[in-house]
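Notes, p. 3: input format for complexes.
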Amino acid sequence: MVKDRMKSVYVCENCGYESPRWLGRCPVCGAWNSFKEVSSERKKGEGRSWLSGGGERSTRVKLSQVRGEERGRVATGIKEFDRVIGGGIPEGAFILIGGDPGIGKSTLLLQVASRLAGPGRKVLYVTGEESLSQLREKGERLGIDLNGIEALAEADLERILEVASEFSPDYLFVDSIQTVYHPSLQSIPGTVSQVRECGAELLRFAKRTGCTVIIVGHVTKDGTLAGPRTLEHMVDAVLFFEGERTSGLRILRSIKNRFGSVDEIGVFEMGDRGLVEVENPSFLFISEERRERTGVALTALLEGVRPLLVEVQALVLSSPFAVPQRTATGYDVKRLSMLLAVLEKRTGLLLRKSDVFINVTGGIRINESAADLGVAVAIVSSRKKKPLSGTDLFVGEVGLGGEIRPVRGLAQRLREARRMGMKRAFVPAGSKIDGDPGIEIVGINDINEVIEICVG
Ligand code: TYD
Ligand code: MG
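Output follows (456 residues plus thymidine-5'-diphosphate):
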């Protein structure tokens, strides 16, 4: 067959960017040597959207008169999971669950599958990674009911869809998208072209049959859904499962959700018998005794609508190196550099010759500036070797001028703080606080004010 040059396209294996010619470096994600030629082995009908796939001619309608799809939701009973997806899995949804290899995606999926399976609900679990006996052993270890789950060990997508069409499940799980391949494409499983094509086929299947499809995608070290990234635009929801390998803590986060809010989290702990829901996460992140400690400050995060108390630890010591080290676990190093610069400039504290280490306990990652004040105070406490009270809370964004800026959701954070036994909270001055928060509130304008009170 003569190669159709017109259709040849190069795709970045990292982010899915397409280019008509080969590039050494991807202009979108910056990856080097990531372009692969995707030969134009397109099948008839490929690229056609599922929306117009029914063969009928489309017509225009008044938007206000479009009838709503009555989508039922099915709660799995795993509350931490249901909340993240927006209160149960919508029927006919197409969902991607991403995460590092070994983080527990298959475990979560199997637990979800077992909850869904039951009278009137058929579940098909396709495994392309583990053998059927491994899957069974895993299920037994989890102590879950495997009776309602049909399993298939297969990587050929055509065969998977053949089995699925014949069985017509209500739920189809594909673990993982990187192991399945479409036989009409020459590229190997896991490549962008394969992932994209298999994803598109599964989407068509989901929309045609009304079957809910949940697929697993592995993620590269830098946190991007390589390959599966190209699926992000076609799926209804992307859930990300994360956590440190060294700790049992796992957080399920929604990155995209057509059915609910994107900033909910679900908290789990990986134990001997699989994932256990953690309803009271603050207890995981802060140590129980509320005593004075040097370099340790408590702050309250807001993950979606969920407040979470965390402990920020700082260690500041004079550096033996010409260029001091700045290391942060669970915190952004660039933000740390900024805070150090602000502290030095606005408080006069000499920090540029010190190594600074920041650790957020429990393996959680801080993604919001409301924790700035806690980090800053922990640094000053360590630098000055002055302890902080275990019942003080610090919430506020630190501006470049050392000013303390307002944060969202202060009321929820304070409620959680009181529940966790905090006695006093340092918050941005002028914050509106409705009712009695039940703890002492100290409004502050400037970083120096809090330093003077706590570590002066
Ligand atoms: P798995 O769900 O296979 O991860 P993924 O599908 O994301 O690659 O989980 C893998 C890890 O979880 C494995 O290293 C063992 C651990 N694990 C437990 O600690 N307890 C359990 O009950 C199970 C099933 C797994
Ligand atoms: Mg797995």
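The longest helix spans residues 192-209.
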